[in-house]
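Exercise 7. Given the components listed, write out the predicted structure of the assembled complex. Treat all entries as one system.
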Amino acid sequence: MEPLLHLDKVELYYDHVYALKGVSIDLNEGETVALIGANGAGKSSILRAITGLNPIHRGEVHFQGSRLDGTRASDIVKLGIVMVPEGRRVFPYMSVRDNLLMGAFTRDDKAAIKQSLDGVLHRFPRLKERYSQTAGTLSGGEQQMLVIGRALMAKPKLLLLDEPSLGIAPKLVQDIARSILAINRDEKVSVLLVEQNSRMALSISHRAYALATGNVVVAGQSKDLLKDERIKAAYLGGEI
Amino acid sequence: MEQIIANGLYLGAQYALIALGLTLIFALMNVLNFAHGQMYVLGGFVTYTIYAQLGMPFVAGLLASAVTLAVVGAIVEKFLFRPVIKRSLREESTMLLAAGIAFFLDAVILLAFGEKQRGVPKIIHGVLNWDFRIIMPYDRILIGALAIAVIATFILYMQYSKTGRAMRALAQDRVAAQLMGVDVNRYSMIGFALGAMLAGIVGGLLVTITGVNLGMGGPTSIKAFMMVMIGGAGVISGAIVGGFILGMMESIGLTVLSQYGDITYLVIFVTLMVFLSFRPQGLMGKPWG
Ligand SMILES: Nc1ncnc2c1ncn2[C@@H]1O[C@H](COP(=O)(O)OP(=O)(O)OP(=O)(O)O)[C@@H](O)[C@H]1O
Ligand SMILES: [Mg+2]
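Answer.
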């Protein structure tokens, strides 16, 4: 079967930084795939290449069999790829409600949007309690729920998450991890998960790629990588 | 006292509307539109042409001002600011561009409408006299009410329409807005057109009271900047508060200070400088809210 998402030898550089040096990645429909790696390895750059936030310089990106690179960021959302960027980035002076409605920006069917809204509020009851509150005043964990909820409002086929556990209380990291699992299982959303918390990422994903300085260095089933000596030494050592 | 407040409200509503347009453009694009005053003047001349020259209804003139300036704003964004913002890494580039557009519009206005002061026939006659406490011509009351209605409509539009929400999102976090599917180019253009349109509407409203002439552009821009600075750049509520504060200050100045000579603006500028040295972000300084 053809993968949902396919990156073929993607190269990307910023002014003088060679960030991706020919990265090839596959993600099948229904999968959760993790990208792990140290700071500056190129994880976020992969997501930015997929969403069109940064143009790629060589290689190709395919989604559902058609060419994706070169498409504008705002049009890529319409195809069903939605990214939750690093650092949460809520719309700080908007209410929780307006933030969520912004997630449904590309959709028109009011009844279906309402249904998604109910679904998100059911999944994250905290957001329901804070419904009219200004998003900038939420706690870090609540903001993370909000941006994930906001992304779900777009009814994505593929959800890209950039370090959802960053700067969040350990107890909430568990909650977020469970939510990601549930979103993948219940709503049949495929997930590409970038994480520095490699243990968490490997425990909720099917497969994973480990990156170092713009290259994929290890790839495999997540449960195998959890036991892999190289991965243990490089990525799992200090954590937990 | 009542007279001062009434005058202040009337002036403040016009000013707030001018400041709203300027602050919208600033919030969306980080562009200080030095040509805002010229856009206001152009709006005045369009209403003058339709209403006074061609003898059509005033409302037609006002609508024509709104549409003309919306089109001018859209063109200016698409063909001038967009390419400059894309290519240039320095903010001064857009400032210089805006100043250039201001001079250009001045030249166009001079060519098309001349340099004379132009006035239009009164839209309604009569004067309200409330026990000699408030004396105000009906046309001022009507123009003030229209301005307040436009402000209210604008706020509701920004708050509750999908387009308004998208513009607020864009102002608060450009990248996140893009990731929700907001087309930055399209919404910058809509925002610029809307901001210019507001300037044009005020021009069309005020031409019925003060008339219009070429020289009003620059001073109007400066007043608009002052209001935005008082309230806090890029904030809806700040623009409105700044507009009404400046309106009140002028109204007080004209009644109270004028006996000491023409010092109203001297006092206003000094007050503003002192205020800004204490609170440089303005009263409500924060990004778009
Ligand atoms: N806008 C930019 N301009 C210049 N260089 C950049 C830019 N963004 C990223 N880089 C560089 O590209 C490389 C890859 O960055 P990227 O953000 O993809 O890494 P990452 O794996 O997400 O790291 P982190 O874990 O710190 O988020 C790094 O060396 C980084 O310094
Ligand atoms: Mg990153």
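Discussion: The mean pLDDT of chain B is 92. Chain B touches chain A through 21 residues (CB under 8 Å).
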